[in-house]
Write a structure and sequence with these properties.
about 230 residues; alpha+beta; Membrane-bound Lytic Murein Transglycosylase D, Chain A; 2 domains; seven-stranded antiparallel beta sheet; two-stranded antiparallel sheet; 5 helices; elongated
């Protein structure tokens, strides 16, 4: 859960951008496609299946970074647009190639603002980034930047759905009680305490200890649980 806008790499969560001041606005656009895709197409992260629609487009306007971490965070944004550049890019490319992924492909990013499900969460690729450095220290190090980002939704088998839609088909909505944890919910629902990892993943929960009574989590269908468990091994 985060009350500040955070963007991080889906496969490498330690590589992230955490904005100090939230954006002026977030614009979400989904357009009707010219023709519906074939049956069995993948669900998008904030909507139903891409049947007859294009992936969602996001514009994040004037999200601000302030302080000594301003430049490194801006560098992360720029590097995500050139994934094979620099030392970190070379390392990431080598890892992606080793596991059979296209190294030059822009990374999938998780855009998160607010609590899982009830808040804003989408998987997307960065399309463009405009950074205005509005304050630079006497040593030439940027200390304040305003970032405007454009992203395009990417389908993912671990995707969330529109929080107003009640979750993906087959998932059950569960309200956390005072004596419950993700592990106890997993044990009670699936008979396997280790299933808490999948529950945490589909709800975007980084810290399992952060859930509180009254929080809502979505539980995967048993068939989905098996597939997700295999994907996370």
């Amino acid at each position: 859960m985060t009350d500040r806008l955070k963007i991080f790499k889906a496969l490498m969560p330690a590589e992230f951008v955490l904005f100090d001041h939230n954006p002026e606005k977030i614009t979400v656009v989904r357009k009707q496609a010219g023709s519906a895709p074939a049956a069995g197409s993948t669900a998008g992260t904030l909507g139903a299946m891409f049947h007859g629609t294009d992936p969602m487009e996001l514009t994040i306007t004037k999200a601000r970074l302030i302080g000594p971490e301003c430049k490194p965070m801006c560098d992360n944004l720029l590097n995500w647009l050139a994934p094979a550049s620099g030392i970190l890019g070379a390392v990431s490319s080598a890892i992606m190639s080793a596991i059979g992924l296209e190294a030059a492909r822009p990374p999938d990013l998780i855009v998160q603002w607010g609590p899982p499900v009830a808040g804003f969460m989408v998987t997307a690729q960065l399309v463009s980034c405009t950074i205005d450095y509005v304050r630079i220290g006497t040593d030439g190090i940027p200390l304040h930047a305003e970032c405007t980002l454009k992203l395009k939704e990417t389908p993912t088998p671990l995707s969330m759905t529109n929080p107003t839609s009640g979750g993906r088909p087959g998932r059950n909505r569960h309200v956390v009680h005072s004596d419950e944890s993700l592990m106890s919910i997993a044990t009670q629902t699936f008979g396997n305490p280790n299933a808490w990892r999948v529950i945490a993943d589909i709800n975007g929960i980084d810290d399992p200890a952060s859930i509180r009574p009254g929080d809502v989590v979505y539980l995967p269908a048993r068939s989905e649980l098996r597939g997700l468990s295999e994907a996370m091994r």
